[in-house]
Amino acid sequence: MGDLDALLRPRSIAVIGASRRRDSIGGAILRNLIDQGFQGPVYPINPNAPFVQSIPAYPSVASVPGEVDLAIIVIPADQVMEAARSCGEKGVRALIVISAGFKETGEEGQKREHALVEVARRYGMRLVGPNCLGIVNTDPNVSMNATFAPVSPPAGRVAFSSQSGALGLAILDYARRLNLGISQFVSVGNKAEVSGNDLIEFWEHDPGTDLILLYLESFGNPRKFTQLARRVARTKPIIAVKSGRTPGGSRAATSHTGALAGSDAAVNALFRQSGVIRTDTIEELFDTAMLLGSQPVPTGPGVAILTNAGGPGIMAADACESAGLTLAKLEQKTVKALKEFLPPAASVRNPVDMIASADAPSYQRALGLLVTDKNVNAVIVIFVPPLVTGAQEVAGAILAGSAGSKVPVLSCFMGSHGVPESLRSLQEGHIPSYAFPEAAARTLARAVSYGVWRKKPPGSVPTIPDLNSDRARETVAKALEGAKAGEGAKAGESRWMTSDQVEELLRAYGIRTSGARTATNRGEAAMVARSIGFPVAMKVRSPEILHKTDVQGVRLDLKTDEEAARAFDEIRTALARSNPSARFQGVTVERMIVGGVETIVGMTRDPSFGPVVVFGLGGVAVELLHDVSLRVAPLTDRDAEEMLREIRGFPILDGYRSTPKSNVPSLLDLIHRVSRLASDQEEVAELDLNPVVVFPGEAPCVAVDARVRLQAAAGAPGAATAKTAEARTSEVPA
Predict the structure, then answer these.
(1) What stretches of 27-82 adopt beta strand conformation (E)?
(2) Per residue in 663-676, is it b (16+ CB within 10 Å) or e — as a string?
(3) Environment class of residue 188 by beta-carbon count within 10 Å: exposed (0-12), middle (13-18) or buried (19+)?
């Protein structure tokens, strides 16, 4: 199909289901199109009335004398198909289906929606909806309000896509109350054909849009979203609210990695990699939009605070530091200039407290100094209304003092959210205003994080030598064939690879392990331990046991044959006592690893996002500490570096308190190998390397323990995974 011009910049519109009753949906849409001043003909389609709201009506779209770019369908769901076919035969280029009664209602509605998409594709029509609020375009060359919302947002340069029609009504009203200018608003509804990805791609090239806002309930094609967002966010900020944060309904995790990498964590990882600013609430989304829609993107964390009251200044300073910002150290010349006109009781350090007697000229002069200080990356201006100075005068002073500023300026008129009527000059001068300092600080912190992301180079996926993905694929295939032939195993079920299979898989990707060997009786355990060389570690082998220490299934620092044989007996007895139903398949014996820092590297295959790579501090307390970072594979060099550095425990790897620095390059190499394995081997559902011991100096890191879960497919290994992915991308468009 073609681009989205017929949807977002139509030259003519037909309203199928236009009503004489203005309080009906069909009547409200027609009224909004006329009241907004749409710059083209509007054709009401109503077979029962010659005129609708004083406009000549037509019995069908086929009877319209001129061309129709866009048809808005507002009729019962069982009549939509016939109307869509008529539009296709007429040569209509795009449809907005407001009507409900499709996928959201169940199986029958899903069939109806699928048929609707087929009709749209057959005739080359783009389709928004069904079950949506409609579209707004405030461009004066279009002036289209094709929604049934009772309010229209002010014109501006912010585009908004909402997956919820009901929420869209509130969004348009909130934008109007905050006076946040909207360029285009699209309620995508069920996303049957046009999706958020399509809109992001369109808005990337729209000269009237500088900022993109998203309300998301689900992703159709996360990989395409990542590619698009990474590119678009380099020039136009993308701010998103993603609902469904709680873990309810997600499957029970079966490994350390699975427990740490829930779906919402995957969303965070996806957004972080893509440069998308995530907010928790719609209110925070608008707070951030007010800043980035009107001010320069901050280039660093240094903040200056200007206030006429000490308490709010301290609150702002605390909020800034809590959000990861820093109080800028003012240049000496700035401090000297402030002293020249502020009273002796004022504080000229940061925060700059001009005290309650500060007048509008003081605000203007002080702000002008702060925005030109080379150490200042942003300024928060706080005003608490005293008796002597009016808010309107201070607003004018802020505008004058920030004129030509290359750093963002945020205002806080205590108790005034948005821009009050008396301060409309702030909005006209593009200065965002917040009710309290904490909101301003949190908003600025999000913008700073985005600015830091945008300044860094995008990174690239490194080429990894010494890989044998074909051999790994053979290992996976053999393991899956074993699953199908095993005890009651069925196609589509998952199974854990044996330790020998895991070893072979990791070896194919050049991932170093401790070289564990298996033993099935006490004599063999002693013999294997002797051949490896004492001291050794011994661990239980059982497909039912994930956390070996929970069943006392680990023995360390074994130094003799007798200790090894005794450890075998103790492990078998401990398993029988702790979990009588668990199958005992012997033990693994490996060389004792001494020293180094324990970390975890793993991956889990999210049903929506694909492989998610996890890194953090490892060992038995990994889920308790939860000091981990995540990224969606494949990882760039920048992704891997950021994963390491963003965990709280990174200083331990980086030579904390004069300890030797760990071999971080070796760890980065291992993370990239896991990312590549996750991308190559679609049947690997979970991989858990815990612990991975990272040594100081140049010694390479070693995976001491490893578990891999495979997802058996119907037919050839990997077929189900591929079919599932194909189904997802065909059901929900890119």
Answers:
(1) 42-45, 51-52, 55-56, 70-73
(2) bbebbbbbbbbbbb
(3) buried
Cα separation of 537 and 153, whole Å? 67
Q: Is 60 exceeded by the pLDDT of residue 95?
A: yes
Measured N-to-C along each axis, helices 77-90 and 107-123 cross at an angle, to the nearest 10 degrees, of 10
State the pLDDT at residue 491: 54
- Which of 72, 25, 76, 69 minimizes the C-alpha distance to 44? 72
E strand or H helix at 64 = none
Question: Computed from CA positions of residues 402, 408, 411, 412, in that sequence, does the dihedral angle turn out positive or negative?
Answer: negative
Nearest partner of 424 among 405, 411, 437, judged by Cα: 411
8 A C-beta contact, residue 108 and residue 130: no
In angstroms, the CA 71 to CA 8 distance is 12
CA atoms of 659 and 129, how far apart (whole Å) = 59
**What is the crossing angle of helices 637-646 and 664-680, to 10°?**
120
Residue 140: alpha-carbon gap to chain centroid: 33
Q: Could you give the CA distance from residue 530 to residue 561 in angstroms, rounded to a whole number?
A: 7
Type of residue numbered 231: R
Going by pLDDT thresholds of 50, 70 and 90, the confidence category of residue 416 is low
Q: What is the layout of strands, in order, in the sheet containing 554-558?
A: 517-519, 587-591, 536-540, 554-558
Asked if residues 122 and 175 have their Cβ atoms less than 8 Å apart, the reply is: no
Instruction: Please give the backbone phi and psi of residue 467, each rounded to the nearest 5 degrees, phi first.
Output: -105, 150
- Average pLDDT, stretch 11-39? 95
Q: What is the rounded radius of gyration, in angstroms, for the C-alpha atoms of the chain?
A: 31
Question: What phi and psi values does residue 710 have, to the nearest 5 degrees?
Answer: -105, 150
* CA 190 to chain CA centroid, nearest Å: 20
Positive or negative, the Cα torsion across 638, 642, 644, 650?
positive
Strands 211-216 and 238-242 turn out to be parallel
- DSSP annotation of 528 reads H
Contacts of 260 (CB under 8 A, 6+ apart): 253, 600, 602, 614, 616, 622, 623, 626, 628, 630
